[in-house]
Design a protein that fits this description.
53% of the residues lie in helices and 12% in strands. The chain has one domain: Sufe protein. Chain: A, CATH 3.90.1010.10. By secondary structure, the protein is mainly α. It is built from 8 helices and 2 strands.
Amino acid sequence: MRSIDDIREEYEFLEGDERYRLLIELGRELEPMPDALKTDATLVRGCSASVWVYPTESGDTLHFLADSNAAITKGIVALVISAVQDKPAKDVATLDIEGELAPFDLRNQLSSNRTQGIPNMIALVKEHAARLAAA
């Protein structure tokens, strides 16, 4: 998975439809998520499309599997995950993920239907990180 910094650098040079294509490409690059993990427990609430996020851990490092049934939404969740993938839980728990995503200006680039679930994706990631960091 590309780092959020690499994605941001590419995104800044693109406009309109090219930005949509980049998001779709990010979604395609996500590590496959087994269907068995796509359950009600891993479903992110409040998204217009179905989005699943499954956290795994190795020591104190977090690794996420994610998927969506919509190409753009899958790209958005890939973008969120790129900000936190394979980082220590204590760092993820305190990371300003919204700040990491701010340069992408998703609220103005995409419809409100596409972005309404982003806060819930971020909350799920941070909650898991906080639980692991506290353990």
